[in-house]
Design goal:
The protein contains 13 helices and twelve strands. It is α/β, with parallel strands linked by helices. The strands form two sheets. An eight-stranded mixed sheet has the order 3-2-1-4-5-6-7-8, sandwiched between helices. A four-stranded antiparallel sheet has the order 10-11-9-12, covered by helices on one side. Helix 2 links the parallel strand 2 and strand 3. Helix 6 crosses helix 10.
């Protein structure tokens, strides 16, 4: 048996533990979390074989110890488990910022047993209750081994991560922090600032009422945990601040062309972004995964939604969520149907198309 310890059992820690338990039969999980409801639920759902409110002697059995609490608690938790960990065990974390903990590892002389980790997956929801085994599937999982970790330990940990369904990718920790500042941390600031901008200018609630697909899509990540993003901003400040200034400069350049009514510059601005955006590999591996959704044109008459739902049910296709798009801005269909996986989308598309429905898959 391989024993994995989890210090903190929130969305990410819980999802890793679930994925290991779901995909392997040789994994034992020992977890601790200060939230009693969390540890009770982890026991009840048989995700944790043992669960405690604080790190304890039980963690001395662990082959791997995952530090999954907010980054501000990592140093404290790291010190707590040092006296508990057995010789040869591997320490890892799941934080979105690697530099602070990697430097702490160097100070403590643990460069032979620490492999920094960052699963590039998440959700606008948080907490163990919202964790799921499929969260890591096809998501990049960044590994940042300390310089003295032997290749055997790196390979073994990489194989462990592979078994969660994630895609391990080894990256230097300083490079990791710069890249994630650009593709993850800064976008959260931008999304939140856009939401706050609309809030501050929405005098009668009209903006909120008519906010359609475009606005909601690009600001969805603003619903993420404010505590987590506060901590990320305070620990990756230099990289975020530099990129934020570059972004401000680019906005000022766009504003200049806008005020000058320069059609070619404005066209190039949108076209260059379109070309680069369309070149992205869509593997659902971003900070928040793309939901498996299709949009279906239906007639405006009683029973239309029921007819679609019945067709899918008869084909044993489970629907996660279904709703009507009240505004067609940037949306071709009027019925949004969300599924649990891409396989269900493929099957549903075939069933509905065979029955004369027009289906649109959002980009």
């Amino acid at each position: 048996m391989i024993t994995c310890g989890f210090i903190g059992l929130g969305l990410i820690g819980g999802s890793i533990a679930r994925a290991l338990k779901h995909n392997r039969t040789d994994i034992s999980v020992i977890a601790c979390d200060p939230n009693r409801e969390t540890i009770n639920l982890a026991r009840k759902e048989k995700i944790a074989d043992e669960a405690y409110e604080t790190p304890c002697e039980a963690f001395s059995a662990c082959d791997y110890i995952f530090l999954c609490a907010p980054v501000s608690h990592n140093d404290e938790n790291l010190l707590k488990v040092l006296s508990l960990r057995k010789e040869g065990s591997v320490l890892t974390d799941v934080g979105s910022v690697k530099t602070p903990i990697c430097r702490q590892i160097e100070k403590l002389g643990l460069t032979d047993c620490f492999i920094g980790g960052h699963p590039m997956a998440g959700s606008e929801r948080f907490g163990f209750a919202n964790s799921k085994a499929s969260l890591l599937e096809n998501a990049y999982y960044i590994l940042a081994p300390a310089p003295d970790v032997c290749q055997e330990k790196i390979d073994a940990f990489r194989n462990l991560i592979l078994s969660t369904g994630a895609i391990p990718l080894i990256v230097d920790y300083e490079k990791h922090d710069y890249v994630t500042a650009a593709v993850s941390h800064l976008p959260h600031i931008i999304a939140s600032s856009l939401v706050n901008l609309v809030r501050d200018h929405d005098e009668n609630g009209l903006m909120k009422a008519i906010a359609a697909g475009g606005f909601k899509d690009i600001t969805r990540i603003a619903s993420s945990s404010p505590v987590m993003w506060q901590q990320i901003c305070l620990t990756n400040t230099v990289n975020i601040s530099k990129l934020l200034q570059d972004y401000i400069d680019s906005l000022q350049a766009v504003r200049k062309e806008l005020d000058a009514q320069n059609p070619q510059s404005l066209y190039d601005f949108f076209d260059e972004a379109r070309i680069y955006r369309d070149s992205f590999i869509d593997a659902g591996s971003g900070p928040i995964k793309k939901a498996p959704v299709i949009r279906v044109d239906i007639s405006d008459q009683a029973g239309s939604i029921a007819s679609v739902a019945t067709l899918l049910a008869q084909s044993n296709i489970n629907i996660k969520n279904i709703g009507i798009a009240h505004n067609r801005e940037r949306e071709e269909g009027v019925l949004n149907i969300e599924f649990y996986d891409d396989a269900s989308i493929s099957k549903a598309t075939g069933v509905l198309a065979a029955n004369g429905y027009t289906i649109h898959q959002p980009k």
